[in-house]
Amino acid sequence: MAISEKKIYPRTGDEQTVYLKSVVTDDRIQIGDHTIYNDFVHDPREFQKNNVLYHYPVNGDRLKIGKFCSIACGAKFLFTSANHSMRSLSTYPFPIFFEEWELDVKDITSAWDNKGDIVIGHDVWIGFEAVILSGVTIGDGAIIGTRAVVTKDIPPYTIVGGIPAKPIRKRFSDDVIAELLKLQWWDLPEERIKENIDSLQSGRIEDLK
Q1: Helix or strand or coil: residue 159?
Q2: Gap between the Cα atoms of 18 and 7, Å rounded
Q3: How many Cβ atoms are within 10 Å of 115's Cβ, its own excluded?
Q4: DSSP-assigned letter for residue 154
Q5: Cα end-to-end span (Å), the chain
Q6: What are 146-193's pLDDT values in tens digits?
Q7: 3-state secondary structure of 183
Q8: Catalytic residue among 34, 42, 84, 122
Q9: Residue 10 to residues 22, 34, 107: CA-CA distances in angstroms?
Q10: Residues paired with residue 63 on neighbouring β-strands, in sequence order
């Protein structure tokens, strides 16, 4: 059993930071071990209520977040039902108000464009009040800048920022990125990760053992 499955708070006396896997109960949200969320405004245990928005069961879309991710206060994940349909002449969501307009409730999902799951890789850092839109995949090791709005997929180990989010630079050389993706250190046994913490923090892949 992973350390992060045993408790809610990673640090004694700090109730602003939680292991997300320990507080999320919605089975449409998958959280990897050791992924943390910090919130100094709201109770971080309310993540699925306050941060995962427009995530209605009728759409069947999912939020998948990998291991060892760091999610800052106010980061939001906006799902399909936030996307009013742009295929129609009007963006007004008539099908939602089926009773008022005497429409068939079975057609309710035609009110929006379904763009699919949000998938966050491993070891991803999502900055303060960043927004991730439905259908986006963020690669392993990526960094999402403060208040960035991510509308498109982000490659692994890429730093992005802005509205809409655009690449700023890669974190490492292509060779190092390829080695990290092959290694997938987040899947190593916890004892081996513990032995390699200094190496992981060194910034030199050759230090890993």
Answers
A1: strand
A2: 9
A3: 18
A4: B
A5: 23
A6: 999 999 999 999 999 999 999 999 999 999 999 999 999 999 999 999
A7: helix
A8: 84
A9: 11, 9, 44
A10: 29, 118
pTM more than 0.90: yes
Domain ranges for the chain, please list them.
1-79+116-171, 85-115, 172-209
pLDDT over 90 (residue 32): yes
**Distance from C-alpha of 74 to C-alpha of 33, rounded to nearest angstrom:** 21
- For 3-18, the pLDDT digits (tens) are 656 799 999 999 999 9
Residue 55 annotated as catalytic? no
Phi, psi (rounded to 5 degrees) for 201: -85, -10
Residue with more model confidence, 206 or 104: 104
**Distance of alpha carbon 137 from alpha carbon 134, whole angstroms:** 9
Q: What is the dihedral of CA 26, 29, 32, 38, to 10 degrees?
A: -80
Q: Look up the CATH number of domain 1-79+116-171.
A: 2.160.10.10
